[in-house]
Amino acid sequence: MSKVNIGLVQMSCVADKATNMNKAIEGIRKAHALGAQIVCLQELFISLYFCDEEDYDNFLLAEAIPGPSSDILSIIAAELGIVIIASLFEKRAQGIYHNTTAVLDADGSYLGKYRKMHIPDDPHYYEKFYFTPGDLGYKIFKTKFATIGVLICWDQWYPEAARITSLMGAEILFYPTAIGWATSQNEATNTEQYNAWQTIQRSHAVANGVHVVGVNRVGMEQDGRMKFWGGSFVSNPFGTIIQQASHDKEETIVVEVDTQKTDQYRTHWPFLRDRRIDSYEPITKRYIDE
C-alpha cells in the first residue's frame, strides 16, 4: 500500500512513568481514532528528559527491550491494528545502557529495535553519561503498512545516517526527538535553532526522496531551564512541510503520506542516480588534513 496515515503524539512529561505511559496511550488511541496506521512517540516519552544532569539514580529508569513498556504497547498495537514506534531507555546488561526505539507491528509483534548511534554531550544534554553508542547499525523495519527507518534525535543532524537508512529501503524516516530552548536565550537564537533543526531534516527528505517525520516533546523541564519546542512535523520527499504542530501545546496529529511520491521525486530529481560512490572514501575520515 502506498498511502499511509502517520500519527504524531507530541506531549509533555512528568516524573511519574505510569502517568506518562497513560498519556502516551491516550494519544495513540486518539491518533487511531483519527485514522492513523503508524504512530510515533517522542524520544524517551516515559520520563522527564533526565539527561539534564549526571545522576546515577536515573539509571533506575531503564528497562529491558523487549520489556514492560514495549509489552504494554504491544497489546495496544494488536488491539488497534496499528504500528507503534516507542523510544525507551534500554538496560542491556549491568552497566550497559542505550537510547533505544522499539518498533511494534500492527499485530502486536515486536519487530526489533534501533539503538541511537550519535550521542551528544552538551549543557543540559549529558547523554554520554548514560548511553552507550548504538552497535546494531542503521535499521529498517518492514511493517504492515510501510518499510520504515527509525533514527533518534541527535542522529537527525547527520546526513550519513539518513542516507544509509534510505539506501536500505526506508520509505519513511522517523525521528523521535527531545530538543528544546534554554529559557535564558533570546527569541532570535531560539528561532534560528528551531529553523536549523527543521531544515536539516527537510534536507534529508530532499536528498533521499523520502517522507520525514519528526516527533518532539513540549513543556518546561529542568526546573524551568529548558522549554522543549515541540514543532513536530511531516515533510514530503521534496522538503515541503505537510503539517506542523505548535511549539507549546500537546497535540496528536495524523497526516496521510503517499510513499509512491518517492518514485516521482527520485525520477525527476535523480540524486541517487548521480551519486559518485567511487569518490566518497574520504567521508570515512574524521577530518582531512592537507
From TrEMBL:
It comes from Candidatus Opimibacter skivensis. InterPro entries: Aliph_Amidase/BUP, C-N_Hydrolase, C-N_Hydrolase_sf. Residues 4-259 form the CN hydrolase domain. It holds the Pfam family CN_hydrolase. Keywords: Hydrolase. This is Carbon-nitrogen hydrolase. It comes from the Bacteria. One of its GO terms (biological process) is putrescine biosynthetic process from arginine. GO terms for molecular function: N-carbamoylputrescine amidase activity. Signal peptide: none annotated.
